[in-house]
Design brief:
The chain has 215 residues and is α/β, with parallel strands linked by helices. 48% of the residues lie in helices and 13% in strands. It has helices spanning 17-30, 46-55, 63-75, 78-86, 97-106, 111-115, 134-137, 151-164, 178-202, and strands spanning 6-11, 35-39, 90-94, 126-131, 169-173. The protein is globular. The structure holds ligand Z5A and magnesium ion. Residues 17-18, 94 line the site of magnesium ion.
Length: 215
């Protein structure tokens, strides 16, 4: 049996990541895959509650301290995520370490310093970057409610995201309709899973989880 695939949705604010994650999970389940949704920040943990207080402006924190909390929030999820991937469960993940680096670097921290705490996390098998101009994001529901939802910062964040782009990234135009984005994502995911299953039948070598984020 092939291990589960780690499918990440990253992207600009209000680009529809959470909408697409939910649709993707539902469509994969309908097709008979075992799949779970993960979301970062995970606001349900103790660390996640500190992050939530910061994002909703009820708490002030040094830029480095909040960066490390976002990273710790990923590390605390790592054992459970690895176990699920090993059990053949696919993970659809709503934001991850690329958001961590993009936001903190956009605030002025050093890029390499920002990557370091996330070094060695599990690396996604497939990353979608949902790209949306800030002028479009501003027209969408809820923009401006949280700390980082300001135009200049969002534009710097997008620039850093694009610097982090690697081979397993697929750039998606998030100006498109919800349904056409969904069709594109589902097609790519189905292809990725099919290739992994075929490889698992043919190859003897281990299909190890990739524990080399930012390495
Ligand atoms: N952050 C960080 O600094 N460091 C880290 O390590 C991590 C995160 C992991 C909270 O994240 C903040 O944390 C975030 C980055 C920072 N700060 N900012 N800015 P979050 O993930 O909890 O943020 P969120 O509140 O979920 O917002 P979001 O992710 O930006 O939105 P989204 O998930 O991309 O979009 P959505 O909720 O699916 O849709 C937004 C609206 O647009 C909604 O009204 C939809 O109906 C509408 N929508 C969606 N798709 C479309 C299309 N295709 N057309 C038109 N309208 C659409
Ligand atoms: Mg979201």
């Amino acid at each position: 049996m092939a291990r589960g695939r780690f499918i990440l949705l990253e992207g600009c604010d209000r680009a529809g990541k959470s909408t697409q994650c939910e649709m993707l999970v539902a469509a994969m389940k309908e097709r008979g895959h075992s799949v779970e949704l993960c979301k970062f920040p995970d606001r349900t943990t103790t660390i996640g509650q500190m992050i939530h207080a910061y994002l909703t402006n009820t708490r002030e924190l040094d830029d480095r301290a909040i960066h490390l909390l976002f990273s710790a929030n990923r590390w605390e999820a790592m054992q459970a995520m690895k176990r699920k991937l090993q059990q053949g469960i696919h993970l659809v993940v709503d934001r991850y370490a690329y958001s961590g680096v993009a936001f903190s670097t956009a605030k002025g921290l050093d890029l390499t310093w920002c990557k370091n705490p996330d070094r060695g996390l599990v690396r996604p098998d497939l990353t979608f970057f949902l790209d949306l101009p800030t002028s479009e994001a501003e027209k969408r529901g809820g923009f401006g409610e949280e700390r980082y939802e300001k135009r200049e910062l969002q534009e710097r964040v997008r620039d850093v995201f694009l610097q982090l782009k690697s081979n397993e990234w697929v750039i998606v135009d998030a100006c498109k309709s919800v349904q056409s984005m969904h069709n594109e994502l589902l097609r790519e995911v189905e292809h990725k899973i099919r290739v992994a299953e075929e490889d698992a039948k043919l190859a003897d070598d281990e299909d190890d989880i990739l524990e080399d984020m930012f390495m």
